[in-house]
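Lab meeting, item 3. Inverse folding demo.
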């Protein structure tokens, strides 16, 4: 390897010149994935004190620890927000970075109130749930929703890149992919959760329950005169209040609305709106259950 090392280096350098778009040199610094790991982990400790700690957290030390955690997290987040807002010619204005960070942490109590409603929905909606502690510590949806609700605040403030990195951090850990742009109502519960995809322009009402494998996605993409996809626009469905969507259902389109009080059965593929209090299921396929012994006898 030592003899061929110089040639490997030369080929890589040639590749850097030949293949554009994969290099980020002589330009502004980008947000750091390693720093993001610390930010998301710190957010979970801030949102759920005592649940993400290796030792017991006593109430009398909570004020001091919260101050320390908030200060450390504020420094990290401000640095990454500044990197996200900078470009090759202009660094991010310090006042704008401070405003965004201050507003973000001011909103943490509101996020905690929403998360409390999500946990209540999980407890009330899952007969297997034995305690609030079990839900916070072991339900992947709570972690994914918690990070998304935080990332959503940065998304609304116009911070690029960083919010998506945050929700992808949660996606990697939980298998639940919620775009930071999606609006989530109160009492939101994702049961099991693996494979759930919620698109950027989704608007989800209150008391909504999704099961694993549900996709709330885009139906098609508008294209310009050169055939390139037009960015932005309403692409993903809206879901009303008190809706349940069962496993592996796919609902597509920016004009698609699921009316409040509706239930979408398993494995449904839907690209049209349904009125309030609808039940959407497939009826053309019939399930048959036959005794195995009779089948074996007829086969012989």
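The presenter then showed the designed sequence:
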């Amino acid at each position: 390897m030592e003899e061929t090392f110089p040639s490997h280096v030369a080929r890589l350098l040639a590749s850097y010149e030949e293949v554009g778009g994969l290099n980020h040199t002589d330009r502004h610094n980008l947000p750091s994935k390693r720093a993001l790991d610390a930010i998301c982990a710190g957010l979970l400790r801030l949102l759920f004190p005592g649940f993400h700690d290796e030792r017991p957290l006593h109430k009398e030390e909570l004020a001091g620890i919260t101050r320390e955690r908030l200060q450390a997290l504020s420094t990290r987040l401000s640095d990454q927000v500044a990197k996200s807002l900078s470009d090759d010619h202009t660094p991010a204005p310090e006042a704008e970075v401070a405003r965004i960070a201050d507003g973000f942490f001011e909103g943490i109590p509101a996020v905690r109130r929403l998360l409390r409603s999500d946990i209540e929905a999980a407890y009330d909606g899952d007969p297997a749930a034995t305690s609030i502690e079990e839900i916070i510590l072991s339900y992947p949806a709570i972690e994914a929703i918690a990070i998304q609700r935080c990332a959503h605040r940065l998304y609304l403030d116009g911070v690029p890149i960083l919010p998506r990195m945050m929700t992808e951090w949660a996606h990697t850990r939980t298998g639940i992919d919620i775009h930071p742009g999606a609006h989530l109502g109160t009492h939101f519960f994702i049961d099991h959760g693996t494979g759930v995809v919620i698109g950027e322009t989704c608007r989800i009402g209150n008391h909504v329950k999704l099961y694993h494998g549900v996709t709330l996605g885009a139906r098609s993409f508008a294209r310009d005169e050169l055939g390139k996809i037009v960015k932005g626009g309403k692409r993903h469905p809206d879901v009303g209040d008190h809706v349940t969507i069962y496993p592996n259902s796919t609902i597509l389109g920016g004009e698609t609305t699921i009316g409040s009080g509706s239930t979408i059965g398993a494995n449904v593929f839907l690209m049209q709106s349904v009125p309030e209090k609808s039940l959407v299921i497939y009826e053309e396929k019939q399930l048959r259950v036959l005794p195995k012994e009779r089948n074996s006898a007829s086969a012989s």
